[in-house]
TrEMBL record:
Superkingdom of origin organism: Bacteria
One family name in Pfam for this protein: MFS_1
Topology term for the membrane: Multi-pass membrane protein
UniProt keyword Transport, yes or no: yes
Keywords in alphabetical order: Membrane, Transmembrane, Transmembrane helix, Transport
Main location: membrane
Record carries keyword Transmembrane helix: yes
Gene Ontology CC entries for this record: plasma membrane
Annotated localization: Cell membrane
The name this protein goes by in its record: MFS transporter
GO molecular function, a single term: transmembrane transporter activity
Every Major facilitator superfamily (MFS) profile domain range: 7-453
Residue spans crossing the bilayer: 39-61, 73-92, 98-118, 130-153, 159-179, 191-210, 216-240, 260-282, 302-322, 329-348, 360-384, 396-422, 428-449
């Protein structure tokens, strides 16, 4: 094994660094707005730009990893992401910050590349545990960012918060160069660049409309025009993908029962994750004069997220062991039930902080199980040569669900605003209830997903010409 034994650790660190780079901006947004002399909506583009970039680049990078080997593509991706993070941390204006965050978003490709590397390096019986741990990095990145945000901002300033992910990526890049094994590229395969351009076009148009709908107005010409453009480009993309020899996304692969059920569950789970990210802070910081708000600080709202993030991480770490005993389908069922119960409890009981902690933690554990299960369902359903693009699409769909969770939850709360200018309690009740109902949909998809006998794994590792690298 030697150096190969460190490959999974490097993959975990790379995913963790990217998750952290995505999460650290949220607590820094108010100070970023002040420091770069921009508006609240302008500062929000620091998060939106990276989300859009990651959504577009993730499946494309996953496909490139399948074609040319994950090591080659991983090195390029980490270099681009690191440069972007450095630019963002040193940015002197909002346009420079956005440009840096766009480059940093390319780091989203570490997710499908990491899944491919794990599948090549791990023995089949350990793949599920590793994939579950990888999926938990999203929750861990959020927990760490909230824990370190306060002390770093208070003592060093908000820019230092943006330097933290760089500290993890630079040594990871050097180690990856020496340790991650090379694999032979697929012979005769090419990149569907037209498909990639059209895919990026419709996706950026659709996600921009979703993320800017609240600011521009859902019936504004800008939003309607972007949605119309997204539909047109999506139709063109589908036509191209059906005709090219090596499509960016194999549509037949996406129709596999294990893949489409996992993707549908990912969409709803992404919604459930970010719905809480909107509802909890608003409720905690709502003035007490509202009759149900807590009048809390941003720090108290951040502390509320930590137990849920830790629960999500712990669940992801144990999901692999449960997968071997009861199968990914049962793990997804468990995750859907726990998340739905957490949100259902909050829909009726949210008058005390302990209730928010309890419901939020149960929700976090459930989402940890769900995220790990959908990743394992996709990995188990596709051949090794398609792991990168399949998991990249799954990650993309989860991102779309997260965008919907943010926007729809904000609309639900905004629709309940009273004449006093404050949201009514029914807005939060409805927001929690909608998330709980959607998790019932995840239950349905889990029941439709293919069943696998506990303790067994499909053909996992296939030799693609991997050779240990000695430099």
């Amino acid at each position: 094994m030697g150096g190969r034994g460190l490959v999974p650790l490097l993959a975990f660190l790379g995913v963790m660094a990217y998750s952290l780079s995505m999460a650290v901006v949220t607590p820094a947004l108010p100070l970023l707005q002040e420091g770069l002399h921009t508006t609240a909506s302008g500062a929000a583009w620091a998060l939106t730009a990276m989300t859009l970039s990651a959504a577009v680049s993730t499946p494309v990078i996953g496909r490139l990893g399948d074609l040319y080997g994950p090591r080659r593509v991983l090195l390029v991706v980490v270099v681009i992401a690191t440069v972007g993070m450095v630019i963002a941390a040193a940015a002197w204006s909002m346009p420079v910050m956005v440009a840096g965050r766009v480059l940093a978003g390319v780091g989203g490709g570490v997710f499908p590349l990491a899944y491919t590397i794990i599948r090549e390096v791990f023995p089949p019986e350990r793949t599920a545990s590793a994939v579950g741990l990888m999926s938990s990095m999203l929750g861990l990145g959020g927990a760490v960012s909230w824990c370190i945000a306060g002390p770093i901002i208070d003592h060093l300033g908000w820019r230092w918060l943006l330097w933290v992910p760089v500290v993890g990526l630079v040594p990871g890049l050097v180690a990856a160069w020496w340790i991650v094994p090379s694999t032979a590229p697929q012979e005769g395969a090419g990149v569907d660049w037209w498909g990639a351009v059209l895919f990026a076009g419709w996706l950026v148009a659709a996600l921009t409309a979703l993320t800017q709908g609240m600011d521009w107005g859902w019936a504004s010409p800008g939003v309607i025009g972007l949605l119309g453009l997204a539909v047109l480009l999506a139709v063109c993309w589908l036509l191209v993908e059906r005709r090219v020899a090596d499509p960016l996304v194999d549509l037949k692969l996406m129709r596999k029962r294990g893949v489409w059920t996992a993707n549908a569950a990912s969409l709803l789970s992404g919604y459930a994750l970010m719905a809480g990210g909107v509802l909890f802070p608003l409720l905690v910081q709502l003035p007490e004069r509202s009759g149900f708000g807590f009048g809390g600080t941003a720090t108290q709202a951040a502390l509320l997220q930590i137990p849920a993030s830790i629960g999500m991480t712990a669940a992801g770490m144990t999901a692999g062991l449960l997968d071997r005993r009861i199968g990914s389908r049962a793990v997804l069922l468990s995750g859907a039930v726990l998340t739905g119960v957490g949100y259902g409890f909050l829909a009726f009981e949210h008058g005390a902080m302990w209730q928010l902690y309890l419901g939020g933690t149960v929700r976090g554990i459930g989402l940890g199980f769900a995220y790990a299960a959908v990743a394992n369902l996709v990995v188990a359903a596709v051949p090794l040569s398609e792991t990168g693009v399949a998991t990249g699409i799954n990650t993309l769909i989860r991102t779309v669900g997260a965008s919907l969770g943010t926007q729809v939850s904000a609309v639900i709360v905004a629709a309940s605003v009273t004449s006093a200018g404050l949201p009514a309690e029914r807005g939060f009740t409805a927001g929690f209830a909608v998330s709980g109902v959607l998790m019932a949909g995840v239950l349905v998809f889990a029941l439709i997903a293919p069943r696998r006998a506990p303790g067994t794994r499909p053909a996992g590792r296939v030799d693609r010409g991997a050779e240990p690298v000695h430099r």
